[in-house]
Amino acid sequence: MPSFGGPQGRSERAKGRTGRATSLDVARRAGVSQSAVSRVFTEGASASAAMSKRVQKAAKEIGYRPNVLARSLITGRSRMVALVVAYLDNQFYPDALERFSKAFQEKGYHILVFLTPNGTDQQAQAVVDELLDYQVDGIVTASVSLSENLTRRCRESGIPMLLFNRNQGEEGPPSVTSDNVDGARKVGKFLVQAGYRRIAHVSGWQGSSTGRERERGIRQGLAECGMQLVGCLDGMYDRQTAMQATRRMCGPDGCKPDALFVGNDHMAFAVLDVLRHELSLRVPEDIAVVGYDDVQAASWPSYDLTTFSQPVERMVETTVGELIKRIKDPDLPRRQVRLVGELKVRGTTRRVGEA
User: Fold this and answer.
1) What is the pTM of this model?
2) Distance between CA 5 and CA 28 in Å, rounded?
3) Could you tell me which residues come within 8 angstroms of residue 228 by beta carbon, excluding any fewer than 6 positions away?
């Protein structure tokens, strides 16, 4: 039978009562104080390399894991970040979500994901109420509209918030986006240079900054070439709505464009399906299509979509860095970051000089 006389025996008794090893068990096994164990497992605390190695060895031997929730009560930090997402149908967001999870984990944080529709303030407020209950250290909103009232609530609660792929202007919360106006402007100039003359736009939701900015950009690019859109309909970032917009503009009674700029790739895939399989139009021989985002499926042979590529990796890295800075210093000034992307020319358009 095992002996329970020494420190290891006392540890076994303690673990046996609770079913889980405690920091006191680790301290006894390593022959150190309980506060020394706490320092080893607290980021930024002072502990020598020898002490850290000794404590971690003891913890591994008895299966100890620090209690993150208990520590958060002491430090006032949960080491959790809330990520609020409008919808995951758009392939851009699952990719960004995976990148956020990895990036925050590397910084010692975990994410809680909340889904909310692009809808009323009441719907958004219900989500904000819930995430505030979790006492998260920071909030990232990905394409979610929050009113100034809800923004103020987060600020009054001392929780820094940052907008990803959306902004509310210079007076709004800090944000990280691609330069939507510049990107769409480059799309417009490219289409003209490639020989297209009747260019239409299936825009993103006009209730969003991305939808408005990309429409403004395509109009600017065309205007610089002495041209304008022959048609523009709001696709609402919705597959069915984008399909209906395509039928209206490209059908028998439509404006008959020879090129369509679509507000994101998710809608562009729907547009291609209608053009090819309902209207029997050849892409790009009869009509060209350009998307925005450059999600993984855009490069697949079935779509081979010309699209403006958002620098998603840099956008995520910048968002994580900016939020953590604000967690550590809530008084930092607001900053609106716009990162430059690039046009990826593929098979749904002619190339410049091929006209």
Assistant:
1) 0.80
2) 13
3) 219, 222
